[in-house]
Design a protein that fits this description.
The chain has 267 residues and is an alpha/beta fold. The protein folds into two domains: 198 residues, 2-enoyl-CoA Hydratase, Chain A, domain 1 (Alpha-Beta Complex), CATH 3.90.226.10; 47 residues. Helix content is 45%, strand content 16%. The chain is globular, with a radius of gyration of 19 Å. The two termini are 33 Å apart. 40% of the residues are buried.
Length: 267
């Protein structure tokens, strides 16, 4: 196992497990933790041996957002530049998750609050323990949702529910989040990691070239016209159709066996 103590990184079965690891602080972010998570995601981007990512938290929570301990106004001094914090730490991480052409599974094992909730929602497939809850806690401290929260909530839930969650900061339980389509599913607490790991391994063993392009296509759809999306589908399908994974998939189908995908472009 490698990585900073604040984010544990372990590669197993082609899945890079990234575990937020400040359980005594509900895995709240510090600068060190930001950089460690970014390093893990950059590793996933750069290493061919990594074919999927599984993100979760240690202890009883997923992530409580930003650690406010270093920002106590009672200590005096100038107010923090939170715009700089976003641009320096959060935004690069969100872009890495969204741009990574490999599946990112998130297992929300407990409370996901503030930016912690929104980092989870940026992942491709989100599973949550039934006891977990998502909280847009920004309104409680006079801030606006960040880490892509206003983007994700509005697109997934629509304006009425997005506004209500953001303005009231009411907790949203995992089962309701699943019913609303905010996450993939809620599972029993004791089954969460087993199910998340099984899913991540299955994705890692899949045709990851095509899976990555599928992710890109779906993310592009909301901002594209039908014509633009048809063109993008054409271009991606051209690449997929020439890939070793497609040749293997068709051959395995005809031979009635399980395919062995490698995520390779050329046969």
């Amino acid at each position: 196992m490698t990585g900073s103590e604040t984010v544990l990184a372990e590669l197993r079965d082609s899945v890079l497990h990234l575990t937020l690891n400040r359980p005594d602080k509900l895995n709240a972010f510090t600068e060190e933790m930001h950089l460690a998570l970014r390093a893990g995601l950059e590793r996933a981007r750069d290493e061919d041996t990594v074919r999927a990512v599984l993100l979760t938290g240690a202890g009883r929570g997923f992530c409580a957002g930003q650690d406010l301990g270093d920002r106590d106004p009672r200590r005096g001094g100038p107010p923090p530049d939170l715009g700089r914090t976003l641009e320096t730490f959060y935004n690069p991480t969100l872009r890495l998750i969204r741009d990574l052409e490999k599946p990112v599974v998130c297992a929300v094992n407990g409370v996901a609050a503030g930016a912690g909730a929104n980092i989870a929602l940026a992942c491709d497939i989100v599973l949550a323990a039934r006891s977990a809850k998502f909280i847009q806690s920004f309104a409680r401290i006079g801030l606006v949702p960040d880490a892509g929260g206003t983007w994700s909530l509005a697109r997934i839930l629509g304006e009425p529910r997005a506004k209500a969650l953001a303005l009231t900061a009411e907790p949203l339980m995992a089962e309701t989040a699943a019913d609303w389509g905010l996450i993939w599913k809620a599972v029993e607490d004791t089954a969460l990691m087993t199910e998340a790991e099984t899913l991540a391994r299955s994705l890692a063993a899949g045709p990851t070239l095509g899976l990555g392009m599928t992710k890109r296509l779906i993310q592009a759809a909301a901002g594209n016209s039908l014509e633009a999306q048809l063109d993008l589908e054409r271009d991606c399908q051209q690449i997929a159709g020439r890939s070793a994974d497609y040749a293997e998939g068709v051959t395995a189908f005809l031979e009635k066996r399980k395919p062995v995908f490698r995520g390779e472009r050329e046969p």
